[in-house]
Amino acid sequence: MTPQTTQHETTQQTPAAQEPIVRQPGEGLRHNVLGAGHLYKALAAETGGTVTVMEAVFPPGVGAPPHTHTHEDEAFYILEGEMTFEIEGHHLPLRLGAGGFVLAPRGGRHAFRNDSTRDAKMLVLALPGGLERMFGGFDEAVRRANGGMPAEAEIVAIAARSGVAVEPPPA
Length: 171
Known about the structure:
By secondary structure, the protein is of the alpha+beta class. It has a single domain, classed as Jelly Rolls (Sandwich). The chain has helices spanning 7-11, 131-144, 152-161; strands at 30-33, 36-42, 52-58, 63-69, 73-80, 82-87, 94-97, 101-104, 110-113, 120-127, 164-166. Helix 2 (131-144) runs antiparallel to helix 3. The model is unreliable at 1-14 (pLDDT under 50).
């Protein structure tokens, strides 16, 4: 911010969506993100890059390993079921049910998974938008693996191209 600009003026420099975005239930681009189903409600290209919004369904045992984003914050709102989160700075895993919320700021390591016996559904926001490009890369990798899990090295490489560092699993 320069001495002549206010915080409001600075935030207004980011282009916003030019048209309203309306998606019916079940409508939107879909990706298989390493076993989680993503249904996009707003893409970065539609929001002037400000946000990506997705509904994500995680079957039991599915989640994201410890990772750190360099470009975006992620917000998670649990709609159904329960999810377990590990957030840098919290000493215990957090188990959250419907109505629970987590904001994982960029630069902080976090992980999440569905440790329950039924599907969990979350509304996920990436700020700024653009994570759908990485998730699209994961979807393509799953397709090349005939619906199976891609090799760990491929997952790490796809994430790295989007500024996301994935921690390797413990040996």
